[in-house]
Design goal:
The chain is an alpha+beta fold. 28% of the residues are buried. The longest helix is centred in the C-terminal third of the chain and has 17 residues. The chain has eight helices and 21 strands. The radius of gyration is 28 Å and the shape is flat. 19% of the residues lie in helices and 29% in strands. It folds into three domains: 101 residues, Mannose-Binding Protein A, subunit A (Mannose-Binding Protein A, Chain A), CATH 3.10.100; 213 residues, Mannose-Binding Protein A, Chain A; 70 residues. A hairpin with a 6-residue loop joins β16 and β17.
């Protein structure tokens, strides 16, 4: 939930820059989930707008949750849609120029940090986890391009990213999305290959080197069938260059769009590679001939001179690397605090220290600072937070200073 108020177009631009897009709502369950996070009594922008009424991310979905009397034809009602928690998450269309809070969907885009120090993959991982979040993860082509631009212009070799070989194979989608939907033909997959073609409404595993027509997905126009036969990897490259990616299929309605077609590559493939940060999205950007079956090459490097494509190498090789996350050393601040007390001072009492921290935390919130900031006492030798500073001017009032 983004608390700052923007008009619909600015909200859409913000979500596309920092997340994926304004959210689409597929069913009443998702509508209820979003309703729980919006502000009570205020309309909140999401991804529906009039064209006539389609979703911001361009996918064709037909769930609607209009309030009574909506959509109306009254002048000034506008071409964008907001939802109201006060009205049980019901929708109303309004002027797109109104400024409301809004909701984005998708994960926050990664913040990448290039480290121009040569380390093994494991040492690079330890460095990133200690100072940032982890070795870099990429979930889509936008991330892959951003990774390339993160590397210093003067460096042209390979750099470590967070992908490494795991022990478990699973069927995943080229575009990186998650889906529980499947429609394997009986007896499939039977070990014929590591890529999937759709034939007459069912899926078959197939050697990735077979040349077949294929179906791409385009953010603007949905499924695009390409009749030129290509290998699965070439089909993937074509879709990423001219559209978005090979198509992923998450419902029977989507499968029916290609049900009567001959064999077509879809985006499903068998994969054993895993991200260092345990992210389970399946976007891959291999260079030609990768991943190969060479032994001992269990970690993945990105080549800046090869459009940022990936190859797996020995984890013991020393490379510069890319981390993701904020720099913890920059974010961490130490502030000295000096307090005075009369009579017996008990500032090292844990309960008093906790009470002081709570007051400081509430003060930070009232100043509009991040509510998830973590504050703690820094303990010195002997485990004490405060040490006594004798006030030599003090007289018979037994006044002492503590800091």
């Amino acid at each position: 939930m983004i608390q700052s108020a923007k008009n619909w177009s600015d909200a859409q631009s913000y979500c596309r820059q920092y997340y994926t897009d304004l959210p689409s709502i597929h069913n009443s369950k998702e509508n209820n989930q979003i309703t729980r996070v919006v502000f009570y009594g205020y309309y909140t922008w999401f991804g529906l707008f009039q064209d006539s009424w389609e979703w911001s991310d361009k996918w064709s979905r037909f769930f609607r949750n209009w309030a009574a009397g909506q959509p109306s034809q009254s002048s000034g009602s506008g071409d964008c849609v907001g939802m109201s928690r006060k009205d049980s998450g019901k929708w109303a269309h309004e002027s797109c120029d109104l400024e409301y809070p809004f909701i984005c969907h998708g994960w926050r885009k990664y913040q990448y940090q290039f480290i121009n120090e040569s380390r093994s993959w494991q040492d690079a991982q330890s460095y990133c986890r200690a100072r940032f979040t982890d070795l870099a993860t990429a979930d889509n082509m936008s991330d892959a391009r951003l990774l390339v631009n993160t590397v210093d212009a003067g460096y042209s070799g390979s750099v470590w990213i967070g992908l490494h070989n795991g022990t478990e194979y699973r069927w995943v989608w080229s575009i990186g999305t998650q889906s529980q939907y499947s429609i394997w033909n009986p007896g499939e997959p039977n070990g014929d290959g590591e890529c999937v073609n759709s034939f007459n409404g069912n899926w078959y595993d197939e050697s990735c080197s077979t040349a077949l027509p294929f179906v791409c997905f385009n953010d603007s126009s949905g499924f695009i069938i390409i009749t030129t036969a290509m290998t699965w990897r070439d089909a993937q490259s074509y879709c990423r260059q001219h559209h978005t990616d090979l198509a992923s299929i998450s419902s029977a309605e989507q499968q029916n769009l290609i049900r009567n077609q001959a064999s077509l590559w879809i985006g499903l493939f068998l994969d054993s590679w895993q991200w260092s940060d345990s992210g389970n999205l399946s976007f891959r950007y291999w260079t030609e001939g990768q991943p190969s079956q060479s032994s001992g090459s269990e970690c993945v490097g990105m080549s800046r001179i090869n459009s940022g494509k990936w190859a797996h190498e020995s984890c013991d090789l020393k490379r510069p690397f890319i981390c993701h996350g904020d720099d913890k050393l920059i974010k961490k601040q130490i502030v000295k605090l000096k307090l005075s007390c009369n009579g017996k001072c008990t500032l090292n009492d844990p309960s008093i220290q906790t009470a002081i921290l709570n007051e400081i935390s509430e003060k930070l919130k009232s100043m509009g600072l991040e509510s998830d900031s973590k504050i703690s006492w820094r303990k010195g030798e002997g485990g004490e937070v405060f040490h006594q500073e004798i006030n030599r001017i003090a007289g018979s009032n037994n006044k002492c200073n503590k800091k």
